[in-house]
Amino acid sequence: xxxxxxxxxxxxxxxxxxxxxxxxxxxxxxxxxxxxxxxxxxxxxxxxxxxxxxxxxxxxxxxxxxxxxxxxxxxxxxxxxxxxxxxxxxxxxxxxxxxxxxxxxxxxxxxxxxxxxxxxxxxxxxxxxxxxxxxxxxxxxxxxxxxxxxxxxxxxxxxxxxxxxxxx
Length: 168
Description:
Structural class: alpha+beta
CATH architecture of the largest domain: 3-Layer(aba) Sandwich
Family: Belongs to the complex I 24 kDa subunit family.
InterPro entries: NADP_DH_HndA-like, NuoE-like, NuoE_dom, NuoE_N, Thioredoxin-like_sf
Protein name: NADH dehydrogenase (Ubiquinone) 24 kDa subunit
Strand order of the largest sheet: 2-1-3-4
Binding site for [2Fe-2S] cluster: 81, 86, 123, 127
Cofactor: [2Fe-2S] cluster
Helix content: 40-55%
């Protein structure tokens, strides 16, 4: 079978080495998302064909595990912790503010301009800094709703979030 041009040579080789192994689907989907940032319909169809797995099973796996994304992520990824400590300290307000500032509608996670993705997560593991968000993998804590505008503006200008905002 011809390898998919939508995948790198490395990913095609990985799929070839895993396609016959039990439990292969999750490993392959992780690798696809690692390379592409999400799993497109084309990628899901290719995985289905290459692993001889019904497309419904591929999508079933992708929808069961919240880690898998079917929408192209924004350039800047904002994860808002909704774990117990963060939630009690106002993280839902941070999430609502980020969505409002970026014009995200219900169910939408990526801004229209493709610059931002905003998603709730269950626990980042920094409960002592609650409420916490992660911006492009960097954790920021002890935030207030009004801090979100500055964080988003700083991301737009490609500058770092000032430490004064990070360590109240």
